[in-house]
Design goal:
By secondary structure, the protein is mostly helical. The chain is about 80% helix and about 0% strand. The protein contains 18 helices and no strands. Helix 4 packs antiparallel against helix 12 and helix 17 crosses helix 18. The longest helix has about 40 residues.
């Protein structure tokens, strides 16, 4: 049995699953529920290939660089594209996940203020205090150190997944096919909804940061056989990820009237908030929903925050260096933490719409890194020509469609 599937492969499958299923899963039903049933069906058809192909291409891109050390994507980008373009892509990578951090911080703030709104009036000063509290608490957890934070995050993965599965099954008792069939019609607006739903799907299923660690670990363990091992794990993991996420999405949308989903979208809330809005929702759902939403988004925030702060530290170091100022790494890190936290606090106070940020900024930026960069490399870099495939070309085209959302109103 161990020759078919090893313990290590199981552990990596859990790691990929735990990273992919989280806060992004809470936003996907909001977009698909407001886009219509045709978009939902189309997403169900393409979810697996458009999760497997881009992550596999990125893994291949990293492994084919054959660099030493454990930097993964950073070294691979510099190796294939050169240092100058590599620095530009690294900055883009930082920006893509900085926006993810902002989205999670805003959504956490919205989830908390939604609960407070049931007991008091939410004025600007109240939102400012909640925003400050969210940023401070998340930074305090972050400052406990990588080891402690990652240990807490790992501990939370299984309860969160268990909650999503339980909720999916529990909601089957409230399914109403009318919620699905009443939106099952094609209109001129449908193509637009399909188009702007692509970035949200990219955001929901993306777990780009862990692919670098995944690829480097397998290169160190298996050498030339690393990609075969990675493909084996990815095929199984992504099938389970897509089936469980789509079951959760369908279960929510069959149980919740579209009016509640549209209301949640308007206020930048997650699907758990839409569930809690329903008059028939039991008290435990409202309480557990807010806890799970905050925990899931905090887990995803912290998982992304490490990379964002490291990227910001390097940018601060480079910026000060160009100005002729040389400071210690501790100073650069502290300054980057203050700058990132300050911007996050201001954005939380402004309260931009989370879904709009996903399809207009975050999804397209992630698509540049995940869909376009590794597949475009097979066309423009001769050494990567053997990795060209139909799957890569489709991935590249979808990536271009996703990025176009940023530029075409």
């Amino acid at each position: 049995m161990s020759k078919i599937w090893s313990k290590e492969e199981t552990l990596w499958s859990f790691a990929l699953y735990g990273t992919a299923v989280g806060a992004g899963t809470l936003f996907l039903p909001i977009q698909l529920g407001s886009a219509g049933s045709i978009v939902l069906l189309l997403t169900a058809l393409v979810a697996y290939p458009l999760t497997l192909w881009p992550h596999r291409a990125l893994c291949q891109f990293i492994l084919s660089a054959k660099t030493s050390g454990g930097e993964g994507i950073t070294q691979a980008v510099n190796h294939w594209y050169g240092k100058r373009i590599g620095q530009l892509i690294t900055a883009l990578y930082f920006l893509a996940f900085f926006v993810v951090v902002l989205i999670y911080a805003v959504a956490i703030t919205n989830s908390l203020t939604e609960q407070l709104a049931k007991r008091m009036e939410i004025t600007l000063s109240v939102r400012v205090l909640v925003s400050l509290g969210v940023v401070l608490v998340l930074n305090l957890i972050f400052l406990m150190g990588r080891h402690v934070t990652l240990k807490v995050m790992s501990f939370l993965v299984f309860p969160l997944i268990a909650y999503f599965l339980f909720l999916s099954l529990w909601l089957t008792g409230s399914w109403q096919t009318a919620h699905f069939t009443e939106q099952l019609h094609f209109t001129p607006q449908t193509l637009h909804e399909i188009w702007i739903s692509i970035p949200v799907m990219v955001f929901a299923f993306s777990h780009t940061p862990i692919i670098s660690t995944f690829a480097v670990d397998h290169r160190e363990r298996y050498g030339s056989r690393a990609m075969d091992k990675c493909k084996k794990i990815m095929k199984v993991s992504y099938l389970i990820i897509c089936l469980s996420v789509l079951f959760f999405v369908f279960s929510c949308l069959l149980a919740i009237p579209s009016s509640y989903i549209l209301d949640a979208r308007e206020h930048g809330l997650t699907i758990l908030s839409a569930l809690a809005m329903m008059p028939s929702a039991p008290d435990w759902l409202g309480i557990s929903g807010i806890v799970v939403a905050v925990v899931a988004m905090s887990k995803s925030f912290l998982g992304t925050y490490f990379g964002v702060i490291e990227g910001a530290t390097e940018m601060v170091r480079a910026g000060l260096g160009q100005a002729g100022v040389k400071k210690s790494r501790a100073f650069n890190r502290a300054l980057s933490l203050i700058l990132v936290s300050g911007i996050t606090f201001v954005v939380c106070c402004i309260n931009p719409n989370a879904i709009s940020m996903i399809y207009a900024i975050s999804g397209p930026l992630i698509a540049m890194i995940l869909f376009i960069m590794p597949t475009l490399a097979t066309l423009i870099i001769p050494a990567l020509k053997p990795y060209r495939s139909v799957a890569n070309m489709i991935t590249l085209l979808v990536g271009i469609l996703c990025v176009s959302v940023m530029f075409i109103p």
